[in-house]
Amino acid sequence: MSKTISLKIDGKDVKVPEGINLIDAAESAGIHIPNLCYLKGMRGIGACRMCLVEVEGMKSAVVGCITRVKEGMSVKTTTPQIEEMRKFVLDLILSMHPLDCMTCTKAGVCTLQQYAYDNEIKESTFTRKKFGYPVDAANPFIKRDPDYCILCGRCVRVCKEQGTNVLDFMGRGVGAKVVTAMDKPLQESSCTFCGSCVDACPVNAILEADRWRKGREWDYTKTNSVCLSCGNGCDITVSTKDGNLVKINSGGTEGSVEKYICAIGRYGFDSVSSDARVTAPMIRVNGELKEATWKDALNAAADKLKASGGKTGIISTAGILNQDAFVLSKFASDIVKTKNVDTTASLYSDADSMKFSDSADMDSADVIVLAGLNPSQWERVLPALDASIRRRVSRGAKLIVINHGETRASSIATVNISADEASSLAQVAKALIAKGKKADNALASAVSGSTLSEDAEKAAALLAEAKSPIIFCHPSLFNAARNISLLIDIKVIAVPYEANARGVVSLGLTTEGKTYKEMVSGGVEVLYAVGEVPVEKRPNVNFLIVQTSYMTELAKQADVILPATTYLESEGTIINYLGKVKESVKAVDPAGDAKQHKNILIELSKAMGTPIKESAAKMKSAFQVKDKPKFHPFEKKKGLEVNPSELNESINKSVIYSSRLVWLKEVAEKAVV
Amino acid sequence: MSEQKELKVEDIKKTAEEKSCAVEKALYYVTGFLSGPMCGKCFPCSLGAYEAKVRLQNIADGRGTDDDLAAIRKIAGNMLEASMCKKGKDTAKFILEWIDTDVFKKHIEGVCPDRTCVAFIEYRIIPDKCNLCGLCKDVCIYGAIHGEKKKPYLSGYLPFEIRQQKCQKCDDCIKVCPTGAIIIVDAKVKEPVGV
């Protein structure tokens, strides 16, 4: 993409891409330039002066976070003079930082501790400064202890960049403090409790609220996995101690705009070990659910399934792993032999949009179009998409919002088209053709009738110049949006509301018989529900099998309950909304007798007489469907309207109500009263 | 930001230079800098200037040690090198300009050569020069001066004296004394004066 620059860092020849700063360049050569205020991916601010380095030919030292690489540069990251300055800064910071590393939770991962160690500073030579600020620990998520704050400003900048804008500095210099507006507790600000500031804080000033004496970083086992709570499928790093979940952090690549997880992903894990879990199979005997052995439960389910055959309905959420989905699809077609198998993905998407969406890299996007979507961190609708877009825009990308209603993102958009999405896309296409982009006859004649609005022309002007644009659209607009890709090189992505909708649909979990909606209103004899499907009332069916991790409302009305693992206990892959294959890795052992979906289905198939075999090769081939985009009318598909916030809430209901997230509900209720 | 016109570094420097004692100059400069033009963006300057003020205050208050002097020297040196902008560097330069004069050393030894740092001086009344007019007692708002006005028909009277614990060293008494009987002496020098 860009030119390569050769330079020397501490005598080492380094080749790096053009435009990066010295800290990143040194990092790529395995040399660490100390820094406290720098955040990879963001522009340096040169505040802490820890990253001062010497560049040959320069009169004085320069800061590594701002200085960009130049051809032939020769950099020295340590000289006696620079060491002296770093020690000076550390000395000053330590004079106002508690020296209680022996009981500090952050010990071991504290940047200040590391640098003090590296520079042999036992304690400050300067006057000890004590503040005694009150600790903000009024919420169960984030504890803020300003006495530990070293004023690096990372939390402030992370919060600003992602658009939540909760934290800021009050005062300057030694007396400065990181505060919310009016220095109120977090819950009285507009905080979403995403915890990005927790991940950014280099010291013990901002921390998960429940970490006191729950072990320190070196006690934890870390597992990189993926969150399946919503359509974003964010990377997570799970920390466990003695087999128990302790905390979850964002697992995104350092510096990527996608390094974000929301409160549900970060704090919902309490539910995994809560009472709301189903830990043993259950069978309804004389109207009451009783715990049973796997064998009995499977046999009870198998008998009913065998008998009902084609009149069976199978529904699932689209938050199950590819391996589970693959087995489920085979289970439906080969074992139960029913065509009625569908997922919640059908509520908001069609098969084409999920199968044929492009893959894209968010970090290189320069123009982003949001069509018919309203991602919001505050309502927790695709919160990571919202955060990533806001970060991209902070880093210079342009945003075009096309939506007939109001959207959260419109405030940061360069162009806002508030009109019907499909016809607006047609206008943009027309404007692009007017700019000389070649179109086939079908497309050209389809848009010839539309009148151009000023905004559509502005949008087209941005798109025509863009290097790597992306359209994020609602699945109902996928075909309309895809027409743009006939004109320019653009990635078109239909964004689902569940983590693995793309995988699940590609693996054939789309109905050829009754739809999800039909099945949950009772169109089948036996209903088999997989995952925490958003159904509260038992449909009018003869027999209900619920395979779930939590005792949902539906499970309470089931005839057989099969306990399934949560995603933190399961292994497999997903395809997230950006088309990336992400691996879910087992972080903790299953609760009780719970088994992963696919294993339950395999056991069940055995009980029914024909065991299913997993086939990685066949699963892989399901993803290799290619489709050449061709013209489709500029229309919005009907019947795919859902309230994303309600859907998300209802799928994650068990998680929210059996974890500390319920606190948010309580606070919200109090605020209403 | 504020309604008041913010002081600029140059203004502070100008006023600071009008002070006679070097310690006072530096302390005034740094204090003014901290409360006004300092932006607080980079650590060496914002944290360093604060520490420098603490140390300068120690010296000006007569509690200064060689340690303080070394710390100020270290801070100013590093501020000059490491701070982000000219404002910080100028402050460091200003401190460095004066720190190597004898004045700082003298303060640590307990003497303000210019006799302006209040911690190092005392106001005394020379009994021989005092005409017992009582003007100083009238003008002292702290009630630090004791003594009795001379009345022609009385033979005994109490001489005028300054109670050091009450004296705020405001200089008002010197201004009104018609005979120049009030003088400033080094606090450390304890022998009787004015004879």
Write out the strand line-up for the largest beta sheet of chain A, numbering strands in chain order.
14-13-24-23-22-15-16
Helix content of chain B: 40-55%
> How are strands sequenced across the largest beta sheet of chain B?
1-4
Largest sheet of chain B: 2 strands, antiparallel
Strands of chain A, count: 26
Shape of chain B: elongated
CATH class call of the domain at 111-273 in chain A: Alpha Beta
Number of strands of chain B: 4
Question: What is the top-level CATH class of the largest domain in chain B?
Answer: Mainly Alpha
Strand content of chain A: 15-25%
The SSE string of chain B, one letter per element, is HHHHHHEHEEHE
Give the low-pLDDT segments of chain A.
Answer: none
What value does the average pLDDT of chain A take? Answer: 95
Mean pLDDT of chain B: 89
Distance between the termini of chain B: 57 Å
How is the main sheet of chain A built?
7 strands, mixed
How would you describe what is shown here?
The complex is a heterodimer of chains A (673) and B (195). Chain A is 28% helix and 17% strand. Chain A has a seven-stranded mixed sheet with strand order 14-13-24-23-22-15-16. Chain A contains 22 helices and 26 strands. The mean pLDDT of chain A is 95. Among the domains of chain A are: 4-78, Ubiquitin-like (UB roll) (Roll), CATH 3.10.20.740; 111-273, Alpha-Beta Plaits (2-Layer Sandwich), CATH 3.30.70; 353-494, Dimethylsulfoxide Reductase, domain 2 (3-Layer(aba) Sandwich), CATH 3.40.228. Helices cover 47% and strands 7% of the residues of chain B. Chain B has a two-stranded antiparallel ribbon. Chain B has a two-stranded antiparallel sheet with strand order 2-3. Chain B folds into two domains: 9-109, Up-down Bundle (de novo design (two linked rop proteins)), CATH 1.20.1440; 118-186, Alpha-Beta Plaits (2-Layer Sandwich). The radius of gyration of chain B is 21 Å and the shape is elongated. Chain B is mostly helical and 195 residues long. Chain A binds chain B through residues 45-49, 52, 60-61, 81, 84-85, 88-89, 92-93, 95-96, 125-127, 151, 171-174, 176, and chain B through 34, 38-44, 46-51, 54-55, 71, 74-75, 78, 81-84.
